[in-house]
From TrEMBL:
Region listing for Disordered, in residue ranges: 1-34
Superkingdom as given in the UniProt entry: Bacteria
One function term, GO molecular function aspect: DNA-binding transcription factor activity
HTH marR-type domain sequence ranges: 55-189
Organism field: Tianweitania populi
Biological-process GO terms, alphabetical: response to stress
Name of this protein: Transcriptional regulator
Species classification: Bacteria, Pseudomonadati, Pseudomonadota, Alphaproteobacteria, Hyphomicrobiales
Amino acid sequence: MLKRLSRARDYASQAQSTAVATRETSKLTADQTERDHWLDGETKIADAPDKHGDETHLWLRLLTCTTLIETEIRRGLREEFDFTLPRFDLLAQLERAENGMVLGEISKRMMVSAGNLTALVERLVESGHITRTTSPSDRRVQIVTLTPFGHSAFGEMAERHRAWLNNLFSGVSAEERDVLLAALAKLKISVRQGLAQER
């Protein structure tokens, strides 16, 4: 009887270990798949370069880099702080505003809808990172402000955020970064001009 119980416990322990390993492997596979998905964009057009112009190559290169970096930032925030990138972005906006910000201004800066922002604010109020008060001059206006806890938490995350970016950009020299910044600034102007013409 004791031997049967011992074997049963061994089987249960092995099953639990297998389940944990499976979950970890699945998570790693999912993260890698997400990264590889964006690498495929450039790989696909490389098979038929004559069918795509320089603009397509440039756009996919920008998209690939942006997505790879964003994926790594999301992973770091999730694993180290149990936090999401949208929440981090909201705290970053408030960290620059000592007197808080109204919801409408935050919505414009983060380029998110009022509905999505309201849900985001609600969660951060519940977690104690921010406060939400009514404007004394207009009761229809809500002012959102960082709490001391939110300020401290953001400081820790921002420090790690800088470290992640430093690591990801470590292969690019300071001079090359300056060239990239200048080129991307010019591209940004070109995109805005193109959008204005479309409208």
